[in-house]
Amino acid sequence: MGSPSKENESKGFFAAMSSIFTNAVHRSVNGLLGYEGVEVINPEGGKEDAEEEAHRGRWKQEERDGYWKMMQKYIGSDVTSMVTLPVIIFEPMTMLQKMAELMEYSYLLDQADESEDPYMRLVYATSWAISVYFAYQRTWKPFNPILGETYEVANHGGITFLAEQVSHHPPMSAGHAENEHFTYDVTSKLKTKFLGNSVDVYPVGRTRVTLKRDGVILDLVPPPTKVNNLIFGRTWIDSPGEMIMTNLTTGDKAVLYFQPCGWFGAGRYEVDGYIYNSSEEPKILMTGKWNESMSYQPCDSEGEPLPNTELKEVWHVADVPQNDKFQYTYFAHKLNSFDTAPRRLLASDSRLRPDRYALEMGDLSKAGAEKSSLEERQRAEKRTREEKGHKFIPRWFDLTEEETTTPWGDLEIYQYNGKYTDHRAAANNSSGSIDDFDVKAIEFNPWQFGNLATE
């Protein structure tokens, strides 16, 4: 088998995972050719394609059997944070930054707030929720945040965004975003199930958007995600199932179905559904592809398009860089830069992680060493905290007494406590403090990323 070509060098986490198993499992299924640029070759898998995935120049031959022996015992388990993985399968971004990718098309929430039509509000808001799936199809693994790690965004659509890692076991993140039109609040606790040739990812969490003009509250329940062909076949990601967004103020709701991918990529990316009133009568139909665009059209009580109406596009994916190593969008690159950072950045910000930064600079050896160092410091900090009888308390989010039920398990809710707003106002009016970086005035030194989990 020949060496990998240049076009095959930039794959990802799950593509690399397939290389773990290639020499340990033997099975032969002929691959089939896809179409329309679909990555999937054969939804059932094929060893020939897996071998191509395994020889991308990222894994050493001798590493594969060892990782297969390590991973096979986790079949059926939640592997969200229980497995230590090598840095070569990571992208230079943390889960907190990945949460912020939902803000790329935040103008759709602005439009939802400005709309006087209650059903069009849901058209705009659900299109916003769908838009992030284009970015979520990347197959690289983001870094798990360190306990107490934060990520901030400013200078994008008038938005301030803040996320914090509020728990390590189980891994939980909380986020808050706000501009003049909306507030966004999320508590996220991803749950996974490793199935050998695939991983199911369950979005245990609660996402709420409040539209400021009328105080409308929207609740979002996304579909689960499935990472396919870890062992056989080309690795690809799909999110089959229902996305439901409910207007908790009026009872109206959107129910959109993400079609599962079939042979030759049939159905992949397709999303169809309706906006319903509180009496569950369809008012607007929606259709499109989550990697391309969404459109809408008024409909009758049977769900058929109204006469003399036509489909109108409400969202279209922005242009993306060609042949990007990590398949990043332009917005993803901004999230890693200081263009979207406030002037005085918290020292716990993901941009300052030494392992993430080293990987972004292409230094895998340094990235791996820094990742191990951070993880060991986090374990040591936990031991010290437990010896002292101290409990970690997040800085920017408070644990409430509220608990919500999701299709995949119960979830305790963290609420933004407002302290960040006061902190940011003070930081903008001062010369800085020991836990801030003035990103405009100092030379960036990523190795200053310090101990984050404080009592």
User: So what's the overall shape?
Assistant: globular
Q: What percent of the residues sit in helical stretches (DSSP H or I)?
A: 10-25%
Mean pLDDT: 79
Please indicate the percent range of residues in DSSP E strands (runs of 2 or more). Answer: 25-35%
Secondary structure category: alpha+beta
Low-confidence stretches: 1-61, 437-455
Distance between the termini: 54 Å
Q: Helical stretch count?
A: 11
Count of distinct strands: 22
Main sheet record: 12 strands, antiparallel
Strand order of the largest sheet: 3-4-5-6-9-10-13-14-15-16-17-18
What Rg, in angstroms, do the CA atoms define? Answer: 22 Å
Tell me what you see in this structure.
By secondary structure, the protein is of the alpha+beta class. 24% of the residues lie in helices and 28% in strands. The chain is built from 11 helices and 22 strands. It has helices at residues 13-21, 47-54, 61-72, 95-100, 107-114, 118-131, 133-136, 330-336, 354-360, 364-387, 419-428; strands at residues 90-94, 141-143, 150-156, 159-167, 172-178, 182-188, 191-194, 199-202, 205-211, 216-221, 225-228, 236-238, 241-247, 253-258, 270-276, 282-289, 293-298, 312-316, 344-346, 397-406, 409-416, 436-438. The strands form 5 sheets. A 12-stranded antiparallel sheet has the order 3-4-5-6-9-10-13-14-15-16-17-18. Strands 7-8-11-12 form a 4-stranded antiparallel sheet, with no helix packed on it. The chain has a two-stranded parallel ribbon with strand order 1-2. Helix 1 (13-21) packs across helix 2 (47-54) and helix 5 packs antiparallel against helix 6. It starts with 12 loop residues before the first helix and ends in a 17-residue tail after the last strand. The model is unreliable at 1-61 and 437-455 (pLDDT under 50).
